[in-house]
Amino acid sequence: MKSFKLSRFITNMGAYIILTIFALVMLFPFIFMVATSLKTPDDTFNYPPRLLPREGVETTLEGFDKPVPLYHIDIEGVKRDFALVETGIPAGIYAELDDLSSTFSVPLDMVKPSASGDQFTLPDGTVQPIMDVPVNGTIMQLVQTGKTALGRFIDPKDFSREVFQVVRTSQPVTKVTAHPENYSHVMTMENMGRSLTNTILVTLFVVIGQLVTSVMGGYAFARLRFPGKDKLFVFYLGTIMIPFVMLIIPLYQLMVLFGWTDKLAALIFPWIFSAYGTFLMRQFFITVPKEIEEAALIDGASRFKILYNIFLPAAAPALATMATFTFLYAWNSFFWPLVIINTGNYENHVLTLTLNMLRGRASDSANLILAGAAISILPPFLLYILGQRFFIESAMSSGVKG
Amino acid sequence: MQVQKTHKSINQTQLIIKVTTAWHFLLSISGIFLIAYIIFPHGLKNIPVWLSYISAILIGLLSIGSFYSAFKLIKLQRQGRTASLVVNYIGLVVTALLFFQNLGIFLGVDALAKTFGSSIGWLSGVLLGYLVYTIGDRYHYRIQIEEMFHKIGKYIALIFFAIFLIKSGLFPALIYLAKQMILPSNFVILFVVIVFGLAIWSMWREPTALYLNRTNAQTEALEGYLFLSPNLIGFLIFFAFPLVFSFFISLTDWDAFGNSNFIGLANYFELFKLNLKQLANSTQDFFQVMDGSIFSELLRFNMFGKSYVLGAADARFWIALRNTLVFGIVTVPLSAIPALFLANILNSKIPGMKIFRAIYFLPSIAAVVGISLIWQWLYNATIGYINYFITVGLDFINSVFSTGYPQAQIRWLSESRTALLAIIIVSAWQTMGFNTVLFLAGLQNVPKELYEAATVDGAGRWAKFWKITLPLLAPTTFFVITTTTIQAFQVFEQVFIMTNPPGSPGTSTLTIVLYLYQNGFQRFQQGYAAAIAWVLFIVIFSVTLLQFRSQRKTGAYDV
């Protein structure tokens, strides 16, 4: 019995490990998005990449008007935080006479020609004087092989302790920070604020419009008898599979005819009629018991009243499922807005279009681009957290019944 | 007294029917004049030819319907009422839409969008009203308190909505509409709208219906079409008509300015024009064997020791077709097989499964544009995480097996060998979770008893999977594969965002829909683009059909 439990435990552990790995794969890009959107521009280009937004730590020192950055300095194996107080100090690279690969970088004004006045011939043939170079407190006889620029680092507690080394390869002291102002910055770029309202408005119209038409059409298909009903329904069903790409050219021409190019109307009115939504509502209404409706009819209730008072309240979950489906479609759509709203007409851009523009304009600021992406991606996520059930159901309903 | 009143109302009804009959005669005659005006070459010049023909046909049908209903109404038959209602309803809808269009109501959305940002906050008040309303539901044992809450909730919602409307610019909008109304053309249209409305009322009212012996079936049919009409009209205008129209466009050389000539199947011939020539040797110049002004080189191959070259009039189309097929063939299994695997794990009832399911579903609700932007940075050659992870992995291998793999510096999106693969990975990643949910739903329909019986018979885990799960899951698998394929063949947004310029490097990520977009909206050869759309449709349709066939052949068990 014990071995059964053990093998079960191992199986479960295996399952959890696999599931967790996949969960990380699914989540990582979004975590990356949020983390990067809070970074400073410099931080986004750090290699190796680090996930959390980090920033150099600065400190104020007496005698310096500006705060100075802190760096990790390695002194005799102990790491200390030193402040960088001066950069670009001209320095030479000095090598040992018997081992030219062992070099030290020291500022030029700390070096004096050696008392002996000897000279040394480098492998490339140039002749350099031998210099007295202070290295870690001792003076060494070295020869200059190159030039560089150094930074002066001092101990914040004891200004007299100073170290010279190349700034670029020094390791700055960092702390985890967040720059939410990236979001407010990106909202002012490329008319992002306006496009966010446009997206909300369009999505609202499309969702409400599709609900109304689908509920009415679904009710007619589910409950009313009229000539040609079955043929029409089959026709509706058949069109669900037709790809949208088929319609893009003729719809564009239609919009030109209506004068709706570059207008938000083009993003709304063609999309408030959905064969799929009608089908979904019909499938639901057909399950509502007939008796209630018949009783209401005998009492003299009109069809509108029956639909509004009996069917709609019962259909709340189905409506929510359909609403999430439509919401995602309207919120995320890109191809049609790209075609119908001209790139020059910023006023009527929706979020996805603005992201496309942003990609071009802020092409080297990952923090801004991903803040924009987050503005478009996070609202659906928020709704998803609130009403996860309906999202999952809208996916399932597309599969199980179709 | 009673009899007199009834008599009077019958007289009234008869009069109404007579007036409506006259209206229908008038309508059919004016319809004929309208057709003549539209078709006559000097009539409406500012509308395209195809539109004038379509509207002529529509008006013709309405005229015939109108004449028919007048004819039947004289005979006092109930079909006359039906025909009259249908004709007048269509007339009402068309004229009302025209009226709205003329007033600029549809374009008013733009004006609303300007102020919407500042007024949207007030909409939360409507939510507040709803919350107050729902509080009332708690007191359903004390009807007065319940009703009070309901009333207060309603008022709060109404007041906030009114504030929202005013803040959104209700008054300027009304003033604008009033100014528009003064224009005589709008006045005329409004008048016609009202006449159609009156005609509907005259037939719909109960006395007329009774006088014309309405039946319940007739009422139900009329109500059925009434309920369906908003949906059906939109469906016809924005779906069925464009679908037919698209085929018509594909037979023309439509350009940016709406100039079009009927050119038959020339667009399709251009797409499919191929030329196969034998080469003297495998490195012979292409232009020595084919006319370079018509054909460009598509591919070279060797067969039976001889070299051939295939030229195509539109090589880019064939490349796009190949890329799309490759994309579909790789993406579908790449997203479906892990999904099936994950769904099987999730289906074993260990705790926490719902959380995993929720996480897997996340990518499929995010905008493709946003996703593509994220992955673009993940794929970055110097600082991207993908290369970093590969480097870390290689360093590990190097340290264990003391091999010498260098750091990964793959330029994922700008190297023609990897660009398509990079996009395939993103798409598979995005659809995997959705497919997992679908598979999971399918798995939950598989009866548990079958597994128990199999366990009793001594079947192992694999045997159960192959012999029970997979066959019973066939309908779901079919659905997953079909929808993923249809989606994959329409890939556009990922390519458009992630490669720059879209389709680069070279033509390595050029897909059919991208090619369609370039033709239709960058070069404005809309006729040609429509032909590409139809080719894509045929490809998708035949693949679906093929899958449908194979599903039938394997004899999927319907649960």
How is this structure best summarized?
The complex is a heterodimer of chains A (402) and B (559). By secondary structure, chain A is of the alpha+beta class.
Question: What are the key terms here?
Answer:
heterodimer, A: 402 residues, alpha+beta, MetI-like fold, two-stranded antiparallel ribbon, 15 helices, 52% helix, B: 559 residues, mainly alpha, 4 domains, 23 helices, 73% helix
Describe this structure in words.
The complex is a heterodimer of chains A (402) and B (559). By secondary structure, chain A is an alpha+beta fold. Chain A folds into three domains: 2-53; 58-172, no CATH class; 183-400, MetI-like (MetI-like fold). Helix content of chain A is 52%, strand content 19%. Chain A has 15 helices and twelve strands. In chain A, the strands form two sheets. In chain A, strands 2, 3, 4, 5, 6, 7, 8, 9, 10 and 11 form a ten-stranded antiparallel β-sheet that branches. In chain A, helix 3 (181-188) packs across helix 14 and helix 11 crosses helix 15 (388-400). Chain B is mainly alpha-helical and 559 residues long. Chain B has four domains: 2-105 and 186-224, no CATH class; 108-181; 274-312, no CATH class; 317-553, MetI-like fold. Chain B has helices at residues 2-39, 49-74, 78-103, 108-119, 123-136, 143-167, 170-181, 184-204, 206-211, 216-250, 266-272, 286-289, 315-347, 353-365, 368-378, 385-401, 419-443, 448-456, 461-472, 474-489, 493-498, 512-522, 526-553; strands at residues 274-279, 296-303, 306-312. Chain B has a three-stranded antiparallel β-sheet. In chain B, a hairpin with a 2-residue loop joins strand 2 (296-303) and strand 3. Chain B starts with a helix and ends in a 6-residue tail after the last helix. The mean pLDDT of chain B is 87. Classes of the chains: A alpha+beta (402), B mainly alpha (559). Chains A and B meet through helix 1, helix 4, helix 5, helix 6 and helix 11 of A and helix 4, helix 10, helix 13, helix 14 and helix 15 of B.
